[in-house]
Automatic annotation (TrEMBL), chain A:
Interacts with TRM9. SUPFAM superfamilies: Trm112p-like. Belongs to the TRM112 family. One of its GO terms (molecular function) is protein heterodimerization activity. It comes from the Eukaryota. This is Trm112p-domain-containing protein. PANTHER family: MULTIFUNCTIONAL METHYLTRANSFERASE SUBUNIT TRM112-LIKE PROTEIN, UPF0315 PROTEIN-RELATED. It comes from Gymnopus androsaceus JB14. GO terms for biological process: rRNA (guanine-N7)-methylation; tRNA methylation.
UniProtKB/TrEMBL annotation, chain B:
This is S-adenosyl-L-methionine-dependent methyltransferase. It holds the Pfam family Methyltransf_11. Coiled coil: none annotated. Gene3D superfamilies: Vaccinia Virus protein VP39. GO terms for cellular component: cytoplasm; nucleolus. It comes from Gymnopus androsaceus JB14. Belongs to the class I-like SAM-binding methyltransferase superfamily. BUD23/WBSCR22 family. One of its GO terms (biological process) is rRNA (guanine-N7)-methylation. One of its GO terms (molecular function) is rRNA (guanine) methyltransferase activity.
Amino acid sequence: MVRLITHNLLACHAKGCTSNNFPLQFQNVQIELKEAEFNPTFLETFMPKLEWKALVDSAKEASATISRYILGNTSLPLEQPEMLDEEFLKNLHHVLLEIHVEEGIMICPNCKHNYPISNGIPNMLLAEHEIG
Amino acid sequence: MSRPELQAPPEIYYGDTEAKKYTKNTRNQQIQADMTYRALELLNLPPDQPAFLLDIGCGSDEEGYIWTGVDIAPSMLEVALEREVEGDLFLQDIGQGFGFRPGSFDGAISISVLQWLLNAETSHPTSSPPHRLHRFFTTLHSALRNPSRAVFQFYPSSDDQIQLITSIAQKAGFGGGVVVDYPNSNKARKVFLCLFVGGGGGGQQQIPEGLDGEMVEDGKVRFEKRRERDLRKDKSGKRKSQKVVDRDWILRKKELYRKRGKESVPRDSKFTGRKRKPTF
Ligand SMILES: C[S@@+](CC[C@H](N)C(=O)[O-])C[C@H]1O[C@@H](n2cnc3c(N)ncnc32)[C@H](O)[C@@H]1O
Ligand SMILES: [Zn+2]
């Protein structure tokens, strides 16, 4: 159940890995879609926390493996919009909260540490020499 | 039997068997649930905004708001999955620190977990308790929004342990202090570490008062303060799935847990409260 909302908050935490360590790149992902209740207030308060470009890119990466017909509309504007209309918020809701990455790997763009995802749960454990 | 954290590392102690046992024990679940609600209350979240929370050492908890959970025991997480909990889960050793970006969460709670960080598993420098606590608190501090709070219920086995934990938390940038509920009751006494980022949010920067003495007649835990907040309803009159923690939600959940559980919260304390621990 890694959803893009949490993926967007997650940087690599291996020892010494402090720059260019976000966003973790998806590889070989399997996705499930689960409907979630639409909550525009939550989305609006959450928006300032998002790294927008990372979200747009990760949505693309995650959706590369699944047909658009199944996945639904994941298109987000390249810039975070100022006016939040209903259609935009619905797309954002879908991308952030309804796409669940169930299997795959998240790879740190800097140190290349692999964080495997199994059963929807990312394994964030580090080996002894990787602990900061 | 000695305390769990002295018997085995957490991911071993909470193996398949214990994880099932732990989550099937309704009495235990009720106690955990009550402490969770108290911790949420101490978080003092703004009533009119949805909050995104971190649950540290979440076990298999089911909750009612928008949250992310981390735990080191795969078996506990598996049970959580079976229960189809709503939040995202991470397999993570909190003593290794978090990688969450600055300001990710509006608050954090942790129930019955912190004492697990007080035992070294290996002789490697990164596994000494002070090192792990330091790593944990510094990365947690940065993952929290300013202002916000992190509330931990835990089981210290000495004042020295409380001292160690609070001094490292302070070095990591947290304000706040320890709140002891029902300090004079063996059964009901609970220790909460209430940490503030910035002013901690919610107006005053004071450490909340611990509860004492009076539990109301039916054994329900008395709440420090009532959160006045109308439930938002949509047009159909249905409650929006705001999943904000409010008092009504808490009370409903508590009812539910009580129905599942056996007895009510211990109602033994008629003592007057001792002054709570000094803050730092
Ligand atoms: C007593 S259980 C509490 C579970 C849950 N918070 C509750 O209230 O029911 C303690 C939990 O802490 C977790 N834990 C212990 N040490 C940990 C660590 N270093 N990192 C993450 N989780 C840990 C255990 O795996 C276990 O699920
Ligand atoms: Zn890295």
